[in-house]
C-alpha cells in the first residue's frame, strides 16, 4: 500500500512539474545595444535595461541604461550614459547600482546621473549585483570566481571559493544570498560566508529568480530558461539557443509572474508570463 501511495504522489508531482509554461506577453524591437540585465522597480513600474554597447569587457564609456514601462514601451533609450559595459543592477534607496567591469557605479534614480564609482581592487569581471538580506550590496566577479561586498563605501572580496568559479547570477530570498555559478546554484550565508550547493545545472547561471517554496527560474545566457524545484526536479521552459537568441540576466515582475529576458546579441527585451505555478 505504501508503495502505491508513493507512486501516486510521484505521478501527481510529475503532472505539476509539466504544467508550467512560458507564454509570450510582449517583445521590443531590436533597439538595444547588447542588453545584459533587466531590473523591474515595483514602486514606479519602471524597467531598467543595462546596455553593454560594445565588447563585454571594453572600458570605452559607451555603455548606458535604458528606461521602459511595464508594456515594454521605451521611455528613454539612453537614460544613464558613460558606463563601461554595464551588466547587473540593484536598487537601494534612491540609487541604482550597476557593475562596471572593475568598479560599481552609483546612479541617481531621479536624474539618471552617475553619482560616483566604487573601485573593486583585484576585480577581473564584475557581473551581477544585488542588495543582500543584510542590506549590503553584493557583486559577483565571474573572472575571479568571487563575490565582492560594498561596506563603508568600499568594495572588497566577501568570498572567494572554488564553488564560485564562474560566479554570475545573484538574488536573495529571506535571509539567504543565492548565487549562480558554473554547474550549480548556491546558498550563501551573509553572516558566516558558508556556501551550500542546492541544485546542479548543465551550464552556468546568468539570470536567477527565486519563486518561493524552493523553486527557482534560471537562465544560462545561451538561451535556455530552466525551472528548478526543491525536490531536485528540473524542467526546461524555453530554449532559443539554436536561434542564437540569448537569455541573459533576467528581470521579474512578481505581481504578474512575468519574466523579462534581455537577449544580449539579439538586442531585444522579451516578456513572458509563467503559467501553472
Structure description:
With 277 residues, the protein is mainly β. The protein has a single domain (2-275), classed as TolB, C-terminal domain (Neuraminidase, 6 Propeller). It has one helix and 24 strands. It has one helix at residues 2-18; strands at residues 21-27, 35-41, 46-51, 63-68, 74-83, 89-92, 95-99, 103-108, 114-119, 126-131, 137-141, 146-151, 154-160, 170-173, 176-181, 184-188, 195-200, 208-212, 215-219, 224-228, 234-239, 251-253, 258-262, 269-275. The longest helix is centred in the N-terminal third of the chain and has 17 residues, at 2-18.
Properties at a glance:
277 residues; mainly beta; Neuraminidase; four-stranded antiparallel beta sheet; 1 helix; 6% helix
Short description:
The chain is mainly beta and 277 residues long. The chain has one helix at 2-18, and strands spanning 21-27, 35-41, 46-51, 63-68, 74-83, 89-92, 95-99, 103-108, 114-119, 126-131, 137-141, 146-151, 154-160, 170-173, 176-181, 184-188, 195-200, 208-212, 215-219, 224-228, 234-239, 251-253, 258-262, 269-275.
Amino acid at each position: 500500500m505504501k508503495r502505491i501511495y508513493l507512486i501516486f504522489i510521484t505521478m501527481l508531482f510529475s503532472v505539476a512539474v509539466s504544467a508550467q509554461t512560458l507564454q509570450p506577453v510582449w517583445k521590443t524591437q531590436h533597439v538595444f545595444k547588447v542588453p545584459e540585465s533587466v531590473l523591474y522597480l515595483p514602486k514606479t513600474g519602471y524597467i531598467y535595461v543595462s546596455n553593454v554597447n560594445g565588447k563585454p569587457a571594453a572600458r570605452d564609456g559607451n555603455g548606458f541604461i535604458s528606461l521602459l514601462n511595464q508594456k515594454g514601451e521605451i521611455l528613454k533609450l539612453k537614460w544613464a550614459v558613460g558606463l563601461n559595459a554595464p551588466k547587473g543592477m540593484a536598487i537601494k534607496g534612491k540609487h541604482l547600482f550597476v557593475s562596471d567591469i572593475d568598479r560599481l557605479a552609483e546612479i541617481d534614480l531621479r536624474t539618471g546621473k552617475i553619482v560616483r564609482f566604487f573601485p573593486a581592487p583585484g576585480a577581473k569581471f564584475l557581473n551581477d549585483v544585488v542588495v543582500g538580506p543584510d542590506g549590503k550590496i553584493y557583486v559577483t566577479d565571474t573572472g575571479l570566481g568571487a563575490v565582492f561586498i560594498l561596506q563603508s563605501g568600499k568594495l572588497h572580496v566577501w568570498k572567494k571559493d572554488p564553488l564560485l568559479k564562474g560566479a554570475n547570477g545573484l538574488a536573495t530570498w529571506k535571509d539567504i544570498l543565492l548565487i549562480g555559478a558554473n554547474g550549480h546554484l548556491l546558498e550563501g550565508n551573509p553572516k558566516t560566508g558558508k556556501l551550500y550547493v542546492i541544485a546542479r545545472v548543465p551550464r552556468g547561471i546568468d539570470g536567477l529568480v527565486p519563486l518561493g517554496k524552493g523553486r527557482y527560474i534560471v537562465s544560462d545566457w545561451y538561451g535556455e530558461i530552466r525551472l528548478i524545484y526543491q525536490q531536485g526536479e528540473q524542467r526546461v521552459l524555453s530554449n532559443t539557443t539554436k536561434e542564437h537568441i540569448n537569455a541573459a540576466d533576467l528581470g521579474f515582475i512578481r505581481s504578474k509572474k512575468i519574466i523579462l529576458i534581455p537577449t544580449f546579441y539579439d538586442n531585444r527585451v522579451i516578456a513572458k508570463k509563467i503559467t501553472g505555478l
